[in-house]
Amino acid sequence: MYRRVTFESQAFEDYVRWQTPSMLTDQSSAGFINDAIRIIQLYGHERASVPVTYESEDAWSRHLFGKHHLIYQLSSDEMRILSCRHRKTK
After folding, report:
1. Which of 24, 36, 63, 80 could serve as a FRET partner for 1 with CA atoms 20 to 30 Å apart?
2. C-alpha angle with apex 84: 53 to 40, nearest 5 degrees?
3. How many helices (H) and strands (E) does the chain have?
4. What confidence tens digit (pLDDT) does each residue in 24-42 have?
5. Any idea where the domains of the chain sit in the sequence?
């Protein structure tokens, strides 16, 4: 199933920052994030690494690399990205 991808405003800014080459990022990081989003978008929780429930937001967390996590909510027709950098805490 193909889900529409939406972003929280800060998550989108972080996503764009990963896509922009700089001294702090590289193309492999951008590609890794894009691949993780694509796999979740298409297969939900059926493939890739095991998602971890994220606090009480009805959200999921997947480790990307280093201290960075992809925090998202998933429904039958949408993947809503809440964060794609540091794992945020409340």
Report:
1. 63
2. 60
3. 2, 5
4. 556 677 788 888 899 888 8
5. 4-83
